[in-house]
Amino acid sequence: MNTLAVPGGRWDKVEFYTSYFLMLVLLSVLGMRLGFDSVWQMPMIDLALSIIALLLVIGSFWFARHNRRWRLCIIAFASATQLVPMVIREPVLLFPLLGALIPVAILVGCLVALSKKGGNGRPPLGS
């Protein structure tokens, strides 16, 4: 019996759980934003996009559970429905968002490097 795990298998688990965590975060953001609509009225287009994004995120736990591309597309769409209208109305908000991309880009670069790392999970000698 082979007890060694395939490195790609571990990466798939990381991606799977990360995407589900992102969907849970988006679900909470969308839920709070729609919940506060009764206090602060959102523009109609924001309300419609947020409802569509909320339904897609909720549905993705069922119909995108085995499809990475669908999960990532839903995460991208739900994120865009929250960020794009805000930046269009207040363009000055683009600067903090661009600044926030620096650590995100570093994290993505590290995750990509880890995904391509070969071997059996042990660090090389001398490190």
In what range is the share of β-strand residues?
under 5%
Helices, by number, come to 4
Query: Percentage of helical residues?
Result: over 70%
Apparent shape: flat
Stretches where pLDDT falls below 50 for ≥5 residues?
Answer: 1-7
User: What is the chain-wise order of helices and strands?
Assistant: HHHH
Distance between the termini: 31 Å
Q: Can you count the beta strands?
A: 0
Mean pLDDT: 82
Radius of gyration: 19 Å
Largest pleated sheet: none
Q: Which structural class is indicated by helix and strand composition?
A: mainly alpha
Task: Name the features.
4 helices; mainly alpha; flat; 127 residues; single chain; disordered N terminus
